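As described in the Methods, two query proteins were run sequentially through the folding procedure within a single session, without resetting any intermediate state between them. The first query and its resulting structure tokens are shown here.
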Amino acid sequence: METVTISQLKSRPSKIIGSALDYPVAVAKRSQIKAYLIGKELYEKIISFLEDYIDKTIVKKTDFRKGKDFEKVAKELGI
């Protein structure tokens, strides 16, 4: 993973943001990672994955034998 300093980010923001489109870029301050830059598409994929994971986990934990309707649960989750 590429690591840049805050100073480098300030001096070359377009180039560094462009690098973050394909793979995360770590931003360091005084040799400690303070943030990660990621591209829009990767961010959206991560959010979508997390939402799907949460929805699947809730559906798996729901006991449909107790009369809960799958369609009602799915509607509550917005899926």
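Immediately afterward, the second query was submitted; its sequence and tokens are:
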Amino acid sequence: MFEQSFKNIDNELHKDAGCSTEMDYIEQTSWLLFLKYLEDLENNRAMEAELNGKKYTPIIDENYTWSSWAYPKTADGKLDYHKAMTGDDLVNFVRDKLWPYLAHFKELAEAADTLEYKIGVIFSELRNKINDGYILRTVINIMQEMRFQTSEEKHELSELYEGKIQNMGNSGRNGGEYYTPRPLIRGIINVVQPKLGDKIYDGACGSAGFLVEAFNYLKESKQLTVDEMEILQKKTLYGKEFKPLPYIIAIMNMILHGVEAPNIIRKDTLSENIMAVQTKDQFNVILANPPFGAATSKSDIQNFPIKTSETAYMFIQHFIKYLKAGGNAGVVIKNTFLSNGDATEVRRELLESCNLYAVLDLPAKVFSAGVKTVVLFFKKGEPTKKIWYYQLNLDRNLGKTNPLNENDLADFLDCFKGQKETENSWFVDLKDVNPDTLDLSVKNPNRSDEVVYREPKDIIAEIEQLDAESAEILAKIKELM
């Protein structure tokens, strides 16, 4: 029902000089969709209050509601062309009145977990990139047909929105920052197995894929009571996201999947001093795919007991600290974490404070950038003694048109349940690991054709040595001449 609407919106945005990429398309679609959703949410809340004999006070003032500025209607429910703005009038109203009004909510909100605060953050961080007011009017008219009334409508919108996130994720080398393949997320959740009542956390939530899939997993785990659904909605899923674009995408993605006021904070996770974390701040489950190699500040580095400028290693420390005793985690990370000398002390901390019970080695093209990654599964509270490895070997090359699917992970999940040793899975006893280097590299003992990738610094050292030897040979040749 809505698929053609999304395509028509993209076609209109493509015509506008201010929108040029998939990221622009989903960003502009998101803020408009968010305001349309707010209108429907406020109407539903008003009707519920009336049925209960109560009065509902709207969040948004009447002049700034969707039905006032975006789509005013005549008595018969059609667009009122006398009141509806278009062209420069519409663009000027959005820029000079609507945006400042909504951004001000950030200062007025009572707490960061309120819907008012989220409105304020979104419109403080983003901006309208649709320069042509006639295009904006057309997009609004198309979006007016999108409704959030029935579960079928929400499901279809959520599926289409996920598709747009995936397209954005595939559009650049930083795609993994926005999109972790959903079959992989579901596989990780099936290993970790969160329970209703757990507090689930993603400190680098991107488009909120892990939180959305955890919500679906728990919602479908049993027939939930009203109280249980209230717990799932408000006291289960928590996230942090630093960048404004994925922040609004995460909020909108969770809303479309049924979480009315997502507990996602707009914050730089690495700016927190983890030495100050208390038991009350911790979580039962952590699910994440943190960024790696990103720029970080010297002040952020001081927030961690093990000093490193690699963001992924900082996030691992963050997750260990934020995991409750007995808590369970599934974290995607670049495979060099297992062997890199700069990560030795972080690995030591992980192995001593947690049971790293499984490592899933993924093929190179699971993510659009082609980086080799692994998934670390660990429980906090007792040291690691033995690690179960599984190497995901597929008989095809992955890519945009041939992504990872559920069947690809079926054998991994089956083998994990029985901790089986197969051609693709094996155990490593920590007693057999060098205690100085703690090299946990994926080395499948059952495959003789496996390629072992060396560290870049080792390759550079060999090149320098060969250059020195070449220079020495050339010097001798010159002497003979």
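The radius of gyration is 26 Å. We note this only descriptively and draw no conclusion about the first query from it.
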